[in-house]
Design brief:
The chain contains five helices and seven strands; from the N terminus they run ββαββαβαβαβα. The longest helix is centred in the last third of the chain and has 19 residues, at 148-166. By secondary structure, it is an alpha/beta fold. The protein has helices at residues 36-44, 85-101, 120-131, 148-166, 183-193, and strands at residues 6-12, 25-30, 61-66, 70-74, 105-113, 136-141, 172-174.
């Protein structure tokens, strides 16, 4: 899919301050340091999200208008250890508020670092999305860091953990921003929802 135009619209601290339109939204979220900014930049084919060596930089709901017909929404990352409990609560509140109050949310992409074993914080978050009827898919990031057989093993392990914990097996895509892997599949999923 071709991205013809990308326009930053605004950063918002809460759902009611987000753009008031009926344009469909496609949201990206994951634990801090999961490679979200790099993935967003790969999809947009330009540097729109700040990539930082220090995780936890996204603290607001960021709306980017793509091709004048859909929003790419960059949400704060969750689970970053090096911030205060107060900051963590603030981020959790932003995330919950967004998912509970955005009526034009079409699809959420939950980003998981493929190198790690299933983490409770991710499983709990996916469970919460499922319980709140949020339409989501999983993107496994940083696939360039593993060999092919390791990637397949890690994905199987993750899906097994999800089935065991919350009885679901969501659709997933393996990606690598470095190798531009998974871009077409992600964009096809977005365009199938428009």
């Amino acid at each position: 899919m071709i991205v013809e135009s990308v326009k930053f619209i605004k950063s918002s601290p809460k759902a009611k301050e987000c753009p008031q339109t009926d344009i469909p939204e496609f949201t990206f979220i994951g634990r801090s340091n999961v490679g979200k900014s790099s993935l967003i930049n790969m999809l947009a084919k330009k540097k729109i999200a700040k990539v930082s060596g220090n995780p936890g930089k996204t603290l607001l709901i960021n709306h980017f208008l793509i091709n004048n017909n859909w929003f790419l929404v960059d949400l704060p990352g969750y689970g970053y250890a090096k911030i205060s409990k107060k900051e963590k609560r603030k981020i959790e509140n932003i995330i919950v508020d967004y998912f509970k109050n955005r009526v034009n949310l079409s699809l959420t992409f939950v980003l998981i670092d493929i190198r790690h074993d299933p983490q409770l914080i991710d499983l709990d978050f996916i469970n919460w999305l499922s319980n709140n009827n949020v339409n989501f898919k999983i993107i496994f990031t940083k696939a360039d860091k593993l060999k092919t057989n390791q990637k397949e093993e890690k994905v199987k392990k993750y899906i097994k953990a999800l089935i065991k914990k919350i009885k679901i097996s969501p659709e997933n895509i393996i990606s690598s921003s470095k190798l531009k892997l998974g871009r077409e599949e992600i964009m096809n999923l977005i365009y199938s929802e428009l």
